[in-house]
Amino acid sequence: xxxxxxxxxxxxxxxxxxxxxxxxxxxxxxxAPHFGDFVLGFPAAVENTRAALSAGATTIGNLxxxxxxxxxxxxxxxxSTQATVTAIALIAAQDADxxxxxxxxxxxxxxxxxxxxxxxxxxxxxxxxxTLLGAQVTHCWGHHFTDPLRRLAFHLALADVxxxxxxxxxxxxxxxxxxxxxxxxxxxxxxxxxxxxxxIAPTGHAINPVPVSENERIPDISEIxxxxxxxxxxxxxxxxxxxxxxxxxARKMAAEIVTGGRRFCHQVLSGLDAIGxxxxxAFAMLLALRRIGGRRLxxxxxxxxxxxxxxxxxSPLVPSPLEEEITAVAAxxxxxxxxxxxxxxxxxxxxxxxxxTDVHEHGKLALERVLRSLDVETVDAGxxxxxxxxxxxxxxxxxxxxxxxTYNGIALNYFRALKSALSDRGSKLPVLIGGRLNQIPxxxxxxxxxxxxxxxxxEGAIVCAEIEDAATALLQIKERQx
Length: 482
Prior knowledge:
18 helices, 10% strand, 482 residues, four-stranded parallel beta sheet, five-stranded parallel beta sheet
């Protein structure tokens, strides 16, 4: 909320302090603005939605973030739910058509291992925001869809169940792994599929050409324009592309996704009803889904059979590409740990507390897989956990170290707060930190973070550029203890 912002940590996004800032942002071009993040789903949902509507917004999000995002230092999910329900009702009450935007990849889709459950989440959000609150709901997706077949199949499945025009299909940013020239191949790969999808099943989703520098830093204006020009030319060249694409295989997979998605939605509603949750009450529905969490929802109500160890304990009907990518990253990192280190770590009997400073948990998930393979016992200390609770969890579980994954511009301040929380409890637990080791300077008038790797090292953090570095550092910690 605006009244609390002056004492809150800075984030990497735009900070709009009042209605006039929303309006100024939208005046330069005669288009309806899209406010995709951090409007719905948070304690400031009503004030932000009012400002976005005043600026002429026709898509307001991000409902998906309600289910999985957490603000640092904020744990009042009742207030966040109340504000979100009120804001969606305000959108529904407008004379003009305004869409409630939900990015699936910011919500449960980032946690589900089965694409049928992802589509089920679409149906659940349509039930809550659409049927119960009277708004029109639109869904964004695409960050984690690297496989062309499943990307197209999911588009066709979403087209089958959607009742409103689409907002956007987001760029597959996790495929940006090389330099700019190599990333243009990734840009062409996902855009080609999205263009074909719009040609054979037009949903109104805008295609989203993400600048090729996105994975390294905030793109500049010329790079944004280059990506748009690239996409425009690709569209011009795509007129006959559907004729060269195996659409039938994608259609079969889409049908399987829809069938499984409807089953998942039905099973969730029936399951909630069985434990006394009023599935006709939007507030109760939102709060229940948020508190249960994506992984438990999939484990209890997913469409696949219960015969698989791991995250969901179900065999996915249509596996999520993200699950495969994280597994592949973990395998590549594990292959660089020497046989000798593996043997010594297994014998050392290490126990570590794993956590993230923010909502981005892919690094943590890959790290968990690597450590399990190395016979390291892990304590899940949470995602977007505050420093003090993390210190308590690590100490109470007799961890040998804390392994911290960070991404969103708060690395140095977070480490300092964690170190202080440990010290207050008489602990000198080692802290291993990896990810995007950057920080937004408190005096900055922009949202641009700066690298703080050297400062972290100087203040006592064990910096891990790669996951395998954590294995080496952990082994050294255990051997010093002996």
